[in-house]
């Protein structure tokens, strides 16, 4: 694997990349496999061949989370693979939770507005043809109810999110140290 | 113990604090020149087609056994462009030229590949390419490479550490330092200033590190660096550690252990108590108020070395101020809080929210009256601060009674100027050491 950068910048670049927490190693451009690691909903995007970094996309319509397309280097170590898979899985899990959360919220909000308007004897549309809305005080009942109804679900999510976040960061640290160690070791074949 | 330099430095401090905030704000929001150029190029389609033109000219198109495939053997690029435009261009090129079943009609296979012929064909293929580019790069342009650039880093770290909030925190610490009944020591002041600033940066970074998916879903916070992927979680945590360790060390060994302990405690309270508690119980608001009250106390203990009544009073004033400020702010964010799963008084206990805000506006009045009794200020202070305290109490009462967006916004914006003005008035009415109780106002 030929290095593309001058040797004097190697250590600095390694440190930079190591701390960037992304799966980017020097790899020959032509041979790099472009396996689609992202789930099908974001697979329309394909990063350029020459890129050796992850790519992050616009916020998802439903979950408001930004999908990441993970770069898979050819010489990915088992630790790096584990990190990438963990990040991928967390991304999918987060995506599912928030998409579901937001959709449920909007659906229940609509139902609430409809039922309140009906109870007041008003139409769903005003005279001007616009959608009728309730004022903030009436909506507050809904917000309070939604929050208390989903409290347990939020607790479980919080606990899992904190665990995953710590695990990902911890593995990023391990991968960074592994890369620094590999770069500083004298001219040996990199092994995990 | 020089009285005049002390007065002057106190005044300079507040003015300087304000100036600092403004300056840091400008810095944090200023875009780097490179990004600006990049935006220009993004807009200018002519540049895109020119690049395309040049790229095609360097390409050699070869035929393969009459198949419809085209294989490209590109010449090595002369220099790797840092601009995203180029990379998305390459990607679009790869798609067009790679395995398309449809060959651009302007490029018949029988033609011999020659550079002259290519140039002749280029205008047509350029137009075709541009159309395809337009379709594909619209979504792709929104994808960004997660590559950290050195010149972006200061701006990113400024946003990660919530530099504006940090500046406000540091100015309350400076006010606490200036109000303390001790000779003004510039070196001690600077150490406190830097140490508190670093501690605040660390706490804010960890807070953002914990809250990525929640921040993504709220309008107020969706442009934070971790949400946008401009920085990795590892780097955020490393930055926080690199701020916390020197910050607390500076406070502990450069100032005094009490201030260091308070700084460390405040970081812990904010990151490990307030942040998780936001999603569990409304008690988070009271914990958050304590977090806001500690910095001026730290300023005081840095100057005097002890936690006396004056420090507690100052902390109490900041503590009470947090409630009208935050409760009014959260009134307009109820939908986002509910959807994000945040337990805030404004969502779950709206009446309590307004009651607490009003209660603490009145508490501010009481504490300002107690200031001279504790020898922090002269008796002039409660008198001259009465108008602004009455005004904020009036707005608190309106918020309590009307409970609408308009009154909440008025209360919130009032709290933004009320606090700096109150601190300034306190500074001007500071009780000089050795002075009698009923002193005239220092001017």
TrEMBL record, chain A:
It comes from the Eukaryota. The keyword Membrane applies. It holds the Pfam family COA8. The keyword ATP-binding does not apply. GO terms for biological process: intrinsic apoptotic signaling pathway. Keywords: Membrane, Mitochondrion, Mitochondrion inner membrane, Transit peptide. It is found in: Mitochondrion inner membrane. Its main location: mitochondrion. GO terms for cellular component: mitochondrial inner membrane. It is a peripheral membrane protein. InterPro entries: COA8. Belongs to the COA8 family. This is Apoptogenic protein 1, mitochondrial.
């Amino acid at each position: 694997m030929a290095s593309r950068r001058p040797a004097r910048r190697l250590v600095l670049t390694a440190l930079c990349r190591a701390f960037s927490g992304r799966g980017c190693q020097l790899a020959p451009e032509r041979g790099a496999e472009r396996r689609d690691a992202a789930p099908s909903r974001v697979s329309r995007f394909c990063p350029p061949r020459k890129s050796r970094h992850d790519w992050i996309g616009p916020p998802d319509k439903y979950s408001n989370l930004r999908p990441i397309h993970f770069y898979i280097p050819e010489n990915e170590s088992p630790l790096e693979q584990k990190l990438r898979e963990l990040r991928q899985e967390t991304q999918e899990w987060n995506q599912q939770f928030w998409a579901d959360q937001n959709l449920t919220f909007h659906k229940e909000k609509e139902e609430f507005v409809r039922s309140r308007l009906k109870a007041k004897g008003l139409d769903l549309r005003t005279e001007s043809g616009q959608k009728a809305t309730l004022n903030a005080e009436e909506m507050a009942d809904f917000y309070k109810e939604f929050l208390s109804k989903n409290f347990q679900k939020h607790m479980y999510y919080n606990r899992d999110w904190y665990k995953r976040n710590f695990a990902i960061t911890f593995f990023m640290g391990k991968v960074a140290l592994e890369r620094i160690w590999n770069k500083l070791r004298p001219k040996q074949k990199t092994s995990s | 113990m020089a009285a005049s330099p002390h007065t002057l430095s106190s005044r300079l401090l507040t003015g300087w604090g304000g100036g600092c905030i403004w300056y840091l704000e400008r810095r944090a929001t200023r875009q780097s020149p490179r990004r600006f150029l990049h935006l220009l190029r993004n807009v200018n389609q002519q540049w895109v087609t020119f690049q395309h033109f040049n790229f095609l000219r360097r390409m050699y198109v070869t035929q393969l056994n009459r198949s419809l495939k085209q294989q490209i053997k590109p010449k090595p690029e002369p220099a790797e462009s840092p601009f995203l435009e180029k990379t998305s261009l390459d990607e679009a090129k790869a798609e067009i030229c790679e395995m398309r079943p449809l060959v651009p009609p302007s490029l018949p296979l029988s033609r011999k590949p020659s550079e002259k012929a290519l140039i002749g064909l280029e205008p047509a293929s350029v137009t075709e390419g541009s159309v395809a580019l337009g379709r594909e790069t619209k979504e792709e342009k929104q994808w960004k490479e997660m590559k950290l650039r050195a010149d972006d880093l200061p701006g990113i770290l400024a946003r990660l550490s919530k530099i504006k909030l940090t500046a406000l925190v540091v100015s309350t610490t400076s006010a606490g330092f200036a109000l303390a009944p001790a000779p003004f020591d510039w070196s001690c002041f600077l150490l406190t200033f830097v140490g508190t600033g670093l501690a605040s940066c660390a706490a804010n970074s960890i807070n953002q590190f914990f809250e990525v998916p929640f921040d993504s879903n709220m309008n107020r916070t969706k442009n934070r660096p971790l949400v946008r992927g401009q920085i990795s979680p590892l780097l955020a945590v490393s930055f926080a550690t690199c701020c916390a360790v020197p910050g607390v060390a500076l406070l502990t060994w450069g100032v005094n252990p009490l201030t260091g302990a308070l700084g460390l405690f405040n970081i812990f309270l904010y990151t490990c108590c307030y942040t998780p508690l936001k999603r569990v119980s409304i008690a988070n608001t009271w914990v958050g108020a304590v977090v806001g009250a500690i910095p001026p106390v730290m300023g005081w203990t840095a100057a005097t070395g002890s936690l006396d009544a004056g420090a507690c009073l100052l902390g109490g004033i900041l503590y009470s101020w947090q409630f009208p400020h935050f409760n009014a702010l959260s009134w307009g964010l109820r939908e986002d809080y509910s959807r994000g799963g945040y337990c805030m008084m404004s969502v779950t206990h709206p009446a309590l929210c307004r009651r607490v805000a009003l209660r603490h506006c009145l508490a501010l009045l009481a504490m300002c009256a107690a200031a001279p009794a504790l020898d922090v200020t002269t008796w002039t202070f409660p008198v001259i601060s009465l108008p602004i305290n009455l005004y904020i109490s009036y707005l608190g009462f309106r918020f309590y009674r009307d409970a609408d967006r308009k009154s909440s916004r008025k209360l919130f914006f009032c709290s933004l100027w009320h606090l700096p003005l109150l601190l300034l008035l306190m500074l001007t009415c500071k009780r000089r050491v050795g002075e009698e109780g009923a002193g005239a106002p220092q001017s």
